[in-house]
Write a structure and sequence with these properties.
- By secondary structure, the chain is of the alpha/beta class.
- 41% of the residues lie in helices and 16% in strands.
- It contains 18 helices and 14 strands.
- It has an eight-stranded mixed β-sheet. It has a six-stranded parallel β-sheet with strand order 11-10-9-12-13-14, sandwiched between helices.
- The longest helix is centred in the last third of the chain and has 29 residues.
- It is globular.
Length: 468
Amino acid sequence: MTNRRRHFAIFTTASLPWMTGTAINPLFRAAYLAKDGDRDVTLIIPWLSFKDQDLVYPNKIKFNVPSEQEDYVRKWLQERTAMVPSFTITFYPGKFSKEKRSILPVGDLTEIIQDEVADIAVLEEPEHLTWYHHGRRWKTKFRKVIGIVHTNYLAYVKREKNGFMQAFVLKHINSWVVDIYCHKVIRLSAATQELERSVICNVHGVNPRFLEIGKQKLKEREVGGEKAAFLKGAYYIGKMVWGKGYTELLQLLGEHQTELTGLKMELYGNGEDSDAVKEAAAKLKLDVTVLPGRDHADPIFHVYKVFINPSTTDVVCTTTAEALAMGKIVICANHPSNEFFKQFPNCYTYNTGPEFVKLTLKALSSEPVPLTEQMRHQLSWEAATQRFMRASDLDQDVIYEKPLSSAVTWRFMYVAHEWRKTLEEASATFHNTVSGIEAARCAFGAIPNTLQPDEQQSKELGLKLQRL
């Protein structure tokens, strides 16, 4: 394998125009892995039929055929990177679960990649992609399977009714499916649950547009000073659901209204809890305005100096990285999800409410520290791709040698390895059996009748309809 051209198949759980991390970050990963032309890359994204497109995609955007959505995705990428990387986009059938607010795969995703090019599979959200997987085992199909854990599902589940019991069950299911289907797991931060064969590494970068905005703001500061560059104070942007930091933010503002007298802040977002967030913000004595969501690169955000993000459910918050890239001061919780950002002097982390107040007042009265080229590089997708290759053990040829140990020790290690392999294969077989039983699938939250694509999706994707 050391002399052959590598093929990366990147499977993810969302696609543009749904502006979510699992739609955007895998797209950038595919583009930057393919950028130098040394690798073959295929990005595999979900295709939704009309009724689900209505539920998921904003602004009534619809696609009649997959090629229309591919054109949309490529245009969006080109506008933000000014490059046309050579990688393939293909689709798998998906259905939207209202309960999980997620797209779930339909059928066996491993069939999408031909056996002769099945080399490296990157599962963006491996637990999500394998909960209900029924078909060929990922480790059998691909030479190496790398899982990238994006989401702290346990934190979300704990907020629901009987949350701690649900989280206990989910934790063990996640560990089970990820272990039997992935060779290596990358956790973006320690905010995710611990998993076998995992490392912690932020393998995400920022849209290069934000780094350009940061450079432009620095020039404005050099010419006209801080007041010319930053006309407004504080803001927050995020999907408007309570679990995305709005609970923590409004609680902090409510408990410290007196100390923060005079604070003016805007909240931008769309979501199921928009009306409730507006109602809660209106009860505050502070000047807090709730506005519709926008693209974070919109010029309206360029003039803000301080980004306040108290969320503790993110794994690595994309908007925090974008704000730092734009040269802003960021105030966030001292939490494992923010560990990567602590290396930047413009990142202020707090532990308590009084610390939050102190840092907010300090940020509003301070100038952001100009980013160095090294800081910009750390935030870039070039650096993120390098980190991904290292964390996946793909940046060097791996040579397996017999360790310098006694024959008895070597024999023991070999037997232990074979025993683990046998148990793992048995476990995978059991999962495959259970995931093929409709009643069992539905009992664990699968969408009914998703073992195979339906007639409509088969027609839209040009698939041969299989009768069960």
